[in-house]
Design a protein that fits this description.
Layout: H1 19-30, H2 49-55, H3 73-82, H4 97-108
Helix pairs in contact: 1-2
């Protein structure tokens, strides 16, 4: 997950691509963090978003219209940055959680033009 304003990235490794596993990781990642809303893509792994919303004090979920990725530009750009470490089509079940967190940290230390060349961290 990425914050639209600060570009701060957080998340974790889900055991499987199921709604329950994704909800668990999202809940653990967002717990104690400031959050106003969540805008996921339209994948099946977000089908239990109502349960997660209730766990996170009824944070609203906004789903974009199908086939309109430009409405989630920050997320799409961050996906591109993540592809530098996790190539599309490769099995990503092997990297351990600490490796994933190190890569998130590297991206949070990376200067961004949209932030005036400051880092999200």
């Amino acid at each position: 997950m990425v914050d639209r304003k600060s570009r701060y990235l957080l998340g974790g490794k889900a055991e499987r691509k199921t709604a329950a596993a994704v909800n668990q990781v999202m809940g653990e990642s967002l717990w104690g963090q400031p959050h106003l809303s969540v805008t996921p893509d339209r994948g099946k792994e977000f089908s239990k978003h109502v349960q997660l919303s209730e766990e996170l004090d009824h944070v609203p979920f906004y789903f974009p219209a199908p086939h309109q990725p430009w409405k989630r530009g920050t997320n799409e750009n961050t996906n591109g940055l993540l592809r530098e470490y996790f190539q599309k089509g490769k099995d990503i079940t092997n990297p351990p959680e600490d490796y994933i967190q190190r890569k998130f940290h590297e991206l949070n230390l990376r200067p961004r033009k949209c932030l005036g060349y400051r880092t999200p961290l």
